[in-house]
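Hi there,

I know you've been waiting on this one. I reran it after we fixed the sequence typo, so this is the corrected version. Both the input and the resulting structure follow.
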Amino acid sequence: MAIHDVDGILSHLEEGYENELSFLASTGVEVYSTADLIRLKGQWQVKNHFFYLLQRRLIRLAAYSPAAIVIGGLLYFAVGWIRLGLFISSLFPLSWMLIIFGFYFLKTSFRGQGHLEWVGQAIDDEIAKRKTKSK
């Protein structure tokens, strides 16, 4: 099979390598040295921590966003502050747009929770395998 577009293939590989954890999933952990695996484990820990932090905040925002409607309604009807009540009530759809964008960002940037867990487990397994092999 002849390769006609070498530049295209190289650019595709470079784009995949920019996110090393995703590249690791496509190539396998066996091709990396132990030092690279330890470095990638550190990168994985940072990305995993950021993923869970952002995910928790988005879930918390989703849980608290209906309170904007309740507080806005109370301000509008009970207290009579019409403009403030409408403003706070309008935060509800804005928060849901932020939630949808946030979860889209998580999915596109980290490929989801399962992918992150798989990569971390693959790195741990390979490091453990090499540790037992060296003894």
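Quick highlight: The radius of gyration is 23 Å.

Best,
R. S.
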